[in-house]
Amino acid sequence: MTVEQARKEIQELTAKINYHNELYYQQHRTEISDYEFDQLLKRLIKLETDFPQLKTDDSPSQRVGGTITKEFKTVYHQYPMLSLGNTYSRQELKEFDTRVAKGLDGEPYEYFCELKFDGVSISLIYENGRLVRGVTRGDGVRGDDVTANVKTIRSIPLRIHDKSAPANFEVRGEVFMPKTVFEQLNKEREDIGEERYANARNTASGTLKMQDSAIVAQRRLDCFAYYLLGDEDVETHEQGIHQLEKWKFHVSPTYRKCKNIQEVLNYIAYWEDKRENLPLETDGVVVKVNRLDQQDRLGFTAKSPRWAIAYKYKAQSVSTRLNSITYQVGRTGAITPVAELEPVFLSGTTVKRASLHNANEIARLDLHIGDYVFVEKGGEIIPKVTGVDLAKRTKNTTPVTYIDRCPECNTKLIRIEGEAAHYCPNVNGCPPQIKGRIEHFIQRKAMDIDSLGFRTIEQLYDLQLVKSPADLYDLTLNDLLKLDGFKEKSARNVLNGIEQSKATPFESVLFAIGIRYVGKTVAEKLARYFKSIDKLAAASYDELLQAPEVGEKIALSVRQFFDNPENQREIERLKKAGLQVEINEKEIVRESDILANKSFVISGIFQHYERDQLKEIILKNGGRVLSAVSGKLDYLVAGENMGPSKREKAEKLGVTIISENEFEELLKGKQPPT
Ligand code: IVH
Question: Is 346 helix (H, G, I), strand (E, B) or coil?
């Protein structure tokens, strides 16, 4: 490929990626799948690696991160980042209005209302149309330069395409983690045995300060822009907001211009409940005088502008009866107590249950069954119990005694030093732990066996057909036909899915086997560092500590996993079943889809190719390479000296056997004789 060709393709890819990004953030629409989007990005990165001279610092490839910042530089803000005066009272809001009216000597004015987004404020500096710096608020005068991390936030434009935009300007906004992303992240953490993060705001704040921007990129932060500063020729805050929209910043469409304080109060009342449905937490409303010249005249106090105020919503809290406490057992055996409440209406939904986190929390609240408890919707979607209404406590209430046996298998619970949760240690005999491990194994990020659902797992377990992931690979058609509602077609579909999972790359297999604290990212790093499951299993605690991302907690957990004979047997069975237990060194770049959905087994010696080469060609063209011949196999590529038993089996099962030449024909799109 020539430089010119590369330049052209890079331009096309950049335009495509930017187009899909904008579609997603501005219109909440998608035209391509996440996978296809990632493929475009991957291709762009590949070209930029091959032709580094063509890489620009506003390339969308910046979105995937990869920069490690050891220490964030402190930078001074051009304009200090002030805070806002705030109030919880409508009366004080009216007093604010009176002060504004007075300050403007009776001149007419309007307000611009926005929600107060509960995230992390950010200052974005643009020079000559390019994002050059992203800085946290810090102490208001100086903040941390988190540019590399900010660039991974896809809703923040890296470049402004409007030629008439001023040379220098600054945009302020709020970086946040959407509720759905936060919930997903917490699910993933629970899944690998980590404690949940407390709330989305702190998680967003922590994420923005992470050293590895590649991890920040995966966290899918978002940013609402709400303030334009600089030389831009606008007369009102409203025009500034429209300008930001035009430049393709993500502006929350919840703003409204209000003619007077009564309209402001209506706006506040309108959003009090509705804000629950927004993608992020909001804790109030920001009321700004709309005209900039009037803002200037009103000026600032030492700490905050006189032209704006934040009205804060009181956290909604209701009192209801605690009927009982139930206990859930997770995949890792961790016990979560749940408050079962008398149903009560709270900010738009009926609440029946609330998480109590752990035994310490119950003790801290001094909970009695039958108590009236206060329930709030805090930073999390799941409501929480914040206290007991002691005035309503009667003699009929009974203090909670925390369970000491597993509610599912009756094993005595244990507590690990330094951890708040109780655990059921019956790892291999406790039903939710076993089912949880299988569910973890089949999930999309792991072995991706989407023909198997949680309900099927439940049935397979109840019939004792599957007690561990390795059992999946021994399932037969007859086994599956025993399940409710399964016919030959659905059963074959499941078997196919299981068969196909054998081609899942090693890094996903490593995640799938469910080592505690080994999430997807750590699994990828371990796979790349140790290269095979055998080398990983043989690594000592100290050797493990040498690997990237691995600290004492993970090293210990990995050692414990591989030292357990039960796990050793399971791994041996998975290996025998034909799962990928070594890294595929070469990053596969798709060249075509001509072999898509086709599976191959390679056997024997070939004239023009090494076996690994053939394997790579198949993968590059969308096919899959399996290790064993089965009824679902599409092609057996037969070289010289192929084992006779393989051929026999293939013939018996009606698998198409092709030669090296026929394989080449297939690559050209021709069908081989069947
Ligand atoms: S305007 C000079 N608008 O609230 C005033 N701030 O206490 C500039 N915030 O640090 C701020 N949503 O992080 C403004 N729609 C909004 C906001 C907002 C959230 C945060 C911001 C600031 C804090 C002020």
Answer: strand
Structural domains in the chain, sorted by start: 3-63 (1.10.287.610), 74-312 (3.30.470.30), 317-415 (2.40.50.140), 431-503 (1.10.150.20), 506-577 (1.10.150.20), 599-667 (3.40.50.10190)
Using the atom order of ligand 1, give the atom closest to the CA of residue 120.
13
Q: How far apart are CA 627 and CA 614, in angstroms?
A: 14
Catalytic residue among 116, 248, 384, 435: 116
- On whether the CB atoms of residues 69 and 213 are closer than 8 A, the answer is yes
- Helices 179-191, 200-208: axis angle to 10 degrees equals 80
Angle between helices 34-50 and 3-27 (to 10 degrees): 150
Which tens digit of pLDDT belongs to each residue from 170-194?
A: 999 999 999 999 999 999 998 898 8
pLDDT beneath 70, residues of the chain: 26, 378-381, 585-590, 672-674
pLDDT at position 233: 83
Q: Which of 82, 86, 121 to mutate to test the pocket of ligand 1 (most atoms within 8 A of CB)?
A: 121
pLDDT at 571: 97
Question: What's the 541 CA to ligand 1 centre distance in angstroms?
Answer: 48
User: Which atom, in ligand 1's list, is nearest to the CA of 288?
Assistant: 1
- 116 included as an active-site residue: yes
The alpha carbon of 124 and the centre of ligand 1 are apart by a number of angstroms equal to 14
Tokens of 469: 């992931």
Q: Write down the pLDDT at residue 627.
A: 75
Closest CA to 371 of 347, 358, 390: 390
What gap in Å lies between CA 392 and CA 369, rounded to an integer? 12
> What are φ and ψ of residue 313, in 5° steps?
-75, 140
Q: Which residues line ligand 1 (CB under 6 A)?
A: 82-84, 114, 116-117, 121, 137, 174, 226-227, 286, 305, 308, 310
Q: Tokens for 68, please give them.
A: 């490690």
613 phi, psi to nearest 5 deg: -65, -45
Closest of 552, 576, 572 to residue 628, by C-alpha: 576
Ligand 1: residue whose CA is nearest its atom 23: 83
In this prediction, residue 586 carries a pLDDT of: 61
- Rounded CA-CA distance 501/147 in Å is 39
